[in-house]
Each structure stands twice: as C-alpha cells, then as structure tokens.
Amino acid sequence: MKKVGLGIIGLGYIGKMHLQNALILKNAYVAGVADMSPKALSSAKKLGVTKTFNNYVDLLKDSAVDSVVIGLPNHLHLQCAQMAAESNKNILLEKPMARSVEEAKEIISVTQRNGVRLMMGYPLRFNPIYRGLKEQIDDGSLGDVEVAHAINITSGPFFSREEMHAPVPVPDWWFNKELTGGGVLIDLGCHLINLLRWYFGEIIDINGCFSRRFKMPFEDTAVCLATFKSGTLGVINVGWFSQEVKTRIELLGSVKDAVVTTPPSTPLLTAVRTLTAGISRNRIPFLNELQHFVDCEIYNKPFISSGEDGLKDLEAIHKAYTNEVLLQQE
Amino acid sequence: MSLVSLVKIRGNGKNSIKDSISQSLNLINYSFKKEALNIVIKPNMCYYWDCTTGQTTDPQFVAALIDLIRERVSSDANISIVESDASAMKCKYAFKMLGYDQLSKDYDVPLVNLSEAKYANASFTAGGQSFRFMVPDIIQNADLKINIPKIKYTTGKIKLTCALKNIYGCNPFPKKYLYHKRLDEAIVALNKAMNFNLCLIDGLVVSGVAPRKLGLIMASTDAVAIDAAAAKIAGLNPNTIGHLKLAEKERLGSSKFVPQGAPLDYFARRYPRRSGRKKIMAEAYRLLILTKLNKKLGL
C-alpha cells in the first residue's frame, strides 16, 4: 500500500493535533516536522518523529515529504504555501486561507501553476454531527431551510478560565490586525461561512455588525446576515468573549427544525477519553480531515474543501467587513 | 488583632462603589494622610480575563478610589496604576483589554508597566530563603501604596489568591514561574520588599468555582488579616495556607482579626465554593500533571 510522506509545518496548538493524528494514519507517515521552537521539536521527537527541522525551507527540500500540512500564523500562509507549491508538495492549509482575498488568489494561482493540490482545513465538514445535518438537508427531511443560525463563541486566542489550568501566553501576532487579517470573523467566522456554504450554496449577499469589547483594533464579536443561493437566510454569530466554548447550528425548516451543538469538553474529560478510546472527541474531525487529505492524494479524488472554497469564504468575510452595519450605541 | 471591614455595596455604579469604599475605610478608622502625594495603586491583572470573570480588578473600582483620594487627599495627588508583565500576560495588551487604558485617559493617571520601570536591586529573606528582587523606584518612593486584590481560588498548593499574592505582580521580572518552587517564601519576601500600606478587596464579582456577584468591599491595613478573612469567606482554613502562615510568622501581620461591618457569614454563604465533584476533578487533573501523563497523552 502506498504511504504518503507528510511534512507538518508549525507545531502550535493545531499543528500538534495534526502531528498526533498523522502518526496514527495507516496510509501515511510523518516524513518530518518544522518549527522554530526547539521545545516543540523535542516534543515531536518524543512522539516518534525522526526528522525535525527548525525552518520549513529545509523540510520542503526533503524528497521524502510528498505533502505538507501548514499550521502557521495567518501572515505566513502565503509565503509558505508558495514555497511548498514551488517544491511540488500538495498542501493541506489551515484556515483562514490568508489575510486577504488577494493573498488567497495568489495561493491558488501558485498551486495551479505548479500543478499541486490544495485542500483547506475545515474540520466542521468532517465532524459526524455536522455531516449528519448535511444529510438531513440533502434528503429533504427538513423541507426548505428558511433560516440557519450558526454560533461559535469561545475565549478565542485568550485562554478560557478553568480552575485546573494556569494561563498560557498568547503570541504577539494575535494582537496585530496586520498579521491576522481581521478579528473573530476571519478566525472563527470562516468555519461557519464555509459550513453554511456547504449546506446552502454560494453566498449572494452578506453584511456584518461588529463590536470590540476588548478595545483592540479588531472585532471580538461579529454578527453577519447572509443570503444563500438556496434562498436560506443565515445568521452567523461569532465571538471571542466567552469563557465557555459554544458551537451550535440551528436550522429552521419548512418541515421541521434541527439543532446540533458540539458537546462541551474539559481537560480531564479529554484525558480520560484519550486514555480509554485512544483519541479525544475534539481530535476526531481533524483525524477525518487528514485521512481525507491523504486518501484524496492516493486515489486522486477531489477534496471536500478546496482552495477555491477558502477563497470564497474570504471573499464573503471581506464583503461583510465592507458592508458593515453601524448600529447606534449608547 | 487587626481590623478588617466588610461592606455590602448598595446600588450600582461608581458613586455607590466610592461610598462603600469610604464606609469600609471608616470602619477600620483609616484616613488618608494629606501629605501622601505620590500614590501607587496595584490592581490585580493576572491575564486578559476582564472583571466579569472575577479574576481581575474592576477598573470602575479603581476609578471610584481615585475619586475618593482626590477628594480626601488632594486633586493634585500623583496617582499611578502599576502592574508587571508575566510569562502569560503582557501589560501593553492587558491595560487595553481590561479597560485600564480608558481609565488612564478619563482620569489622567499613568499606567506603569513595572517590568519597564526603573528599579534598584535589594535582598530579602522569608522562611529561611533568600531572594534578590528588583524593587521599582515608583513603589519604593511612594507615600501611599494601595493593594486592590480579588478573592479567588488558585491551582496547586497556594489555594487562595488575595492580598499577599497580588503583590507577587509587583515583581518586575516577567518569568515569575521561576519562583514557583519556593512560591510561599517568594510571596512573603515580595510583600516585605514592596511594603504596601492599605488593602482594599474588590469583591464586586468573586471567582470561586465560578464567578458570582458578591457586592463585597473589604479594607484593612493588615494584608495577613484581610487574607485570613477572605480565606474564611472562600471556605478555606487560613491555617492551611502556606504563604499566609509564613507571612504571620515573619510578622507581616496577624491572621487573627476583628471583623467590622457586615457579617462575614453573609458573604461566606454566598461565595461560589467548589463542590465535592469539582474538588475530585481538580485533584484528578493535578495528578495527571504530576505524573506527566498529560504530556504522554499529548495534551
């Protein structure tokens, strides 16, 4: 059986998760990992990774690497994707695709020029509960979905308060809009916009209403109103203000309604699940996503979430930023 | 025995807070000295969690205190708000996110990041351990130093974060975790180094197992006494809190206190204490970290 050599670029929170998942795939192996942090590379070695690089340029030169998973800060996506494409590596790129529509177009252009494949990392499409909703929409059991409410509220890059944890440092780039490309809408909104586009087709129009509870130069709450090709009206609500993580989709159909909520988790619950089942519940969608990426490479199948999807999501996000609705405040 | 006042705030807004602070100071017979022209205020800004979480001091509380000081001392009093960088928190972001940038503009008071301020090195001992700290000039030279802690549970053996622990944030050295192995001693030595005069607890929202609006304001000139009272409110035995016991042994204050004002039991009954289940979960997770199983599992 052909095995795909994966290179993991960036070993932050999400890169570490991809690495753990890559290590248990049957038709792939970890050909190498790259990160600037010696500590992160040392942890990877402890997990069994033999080749580690302190920069991704060297990893991309390694012929054992067939494909790369890019989990870097937003401002590094374009440069890294360009180099990966020019090194003929297929790419699984973490969301958001880039900081701007222009950057996203450049990424697509360079992958096309070099004949490499590009998949976007959108784990909600690989989460069994949200796939279940897709099936209900497609088989007509909800009727026409008139309204879709999509909610994703978290503490964002700022650590949520749980009594068993000490705060963790937040990298400086998170506070710099130039480096992130935006606030919560680009960070979390892209997940929901991507999911609703998968459910209801392209976005016809979208506007956004934003607030800045933390007085930073980017929004930490966003409510968007969008119309979809199917005729569905979508309300997209994302925030970085809560100590409690909530991801919830509510579909109001002409036949019946459907509601799906990601069950909450705690560090202890995650540990127990990892001990008993070998994998925690929040890792499963990411595992499915990586498996899909590897399978598509081996069997030359189209990706469920392509680079074009990432571009369309960013176009919608930037349209919402442009079409900001200013409501009167006290 | 030291006096510790407990006041239940009536009403909402800055003026109610100001009246309650004033009442809490009267109950301990405290009056500001007119000659105190250089004043330092140390709120608790442990992370980017805003005051609704009960983890950080409400800027409105500090605003009310500034009003009171300007009224009672002088409108020209030189007031500074101080905090320092920590491994997981940078003042430049926390000041903005927690509302202190706005307070600074509205009240024309400087925000001082102690990690970037001038200092002099000095040695202090506590519990037989010797420490060399950077003591910021602004604290060293202040006529009046006011500590505004929160009441909250802390992970590990510290158990309670309140007045004594809040002074840990006056240490300009950002890598504070390096003191964690001798934390009780470091906290007490830092309290000796910084030598604060007055504690005012912002118990508007407290953080036990979850945040709760308690509407409590406490005052004392004795950090040990006020911590002992806070521990009782949080359902903890002050004699089991290492840094509190050590602070008393080192004569920083007395854990025996005379409560003034509202009954302590009123607040103790309402404090969001840990349930047995939560305690077991916290212990289980602590065990996970102690055995390094969390790292083995890649968590």
Describe this structure in words.
The complex is a heterodimer of chains A (330) and B (299). Chain A has 330 residues and is of the alpha/beta class. In chain A, 38% of the residues lie in helices and 22% in strands. The longest helix of chain A has 17 residues, at 184-200. Chain B is an alpha/beta fold. Chain B is 36% helix and 24% strand. Chain B has twelve helices and twelve strands. Chain B has helices spanning 14-27, 59-72, 91-97, 100-107, 137-140, 163-166, 183-194, 223-233, 242-249, 264-270, 276-290, 293-296, and strands spanning 2-8, 38-43, 78-83, 111-113, 119-126, 129-136, 144-148, 152-153, 160-161, 198-207, 211-220, 257-261. In chain B, the strands form three sheets. In chain B, strands 4-3-2-7-10-11-1-12 form an eight-stranded mixed sheet. In chain B, strand 10 (198-207) and strand 11 (211-220) form a beta hairpin. The longest helix of chain B is centred in the C-terminal third of the chain and has 15 residues, at 276-290. The relative contact order of chain B is 0.17. The A-B interface holds A 16, 20, 43, 47, 158-159, 161, 163-170, 172, 175, 213-216, 243, 266-268, 270-271, 274-275, 280 and B 46-50, 53, 55, 87-90, 93, 96-97, 99, 101-102, 153, 155, 207, 209, 274, 278, 281-282, 284-286, 288, 293-295, 297-299.
Number of beta-strand segments of chain A: 12
Taken from the alpha-carbon principal axes, the silhouette of chain B is globular
Multimeric status of the protein: heterodimer
Structural class of chain A: alpha/beta
Average pLDDT over all residues of chain B? 93
Report the biggest beta sheet of chain B as strand number plus sense, adding barrel if it closes.
Answer: 8 strands, mixed
Determine the strand fraction of chain B and express it as a percent band: 15-25%
Q: Helix and strand string of chain B, N-terminal first?
A: EHEHEHHEEEHEEEHHEEHHEHHH
Determine Rg of chain B (CA atoms, Å). Answer: 18 Å
Q: How much of the residues of chain A is beta strand, in percent? A: 15-25%
- What fraction, in percent, of the residue positions of chain A are helical? 25-40%
Run of helices and strands of chain A: EHEHEHEHEHEHEHHEEEEEHHH
CA gyration radius of chain A, whole angstroms: 20 Å
State mean pLDDT of chain A (0 to 100 scale): 94
Poorly predicted residue ranges of chain B: none
* Class inferred from helices and paired strands of chain B: alpha/beta
Portion of residues within helices of chain B: 25-40%
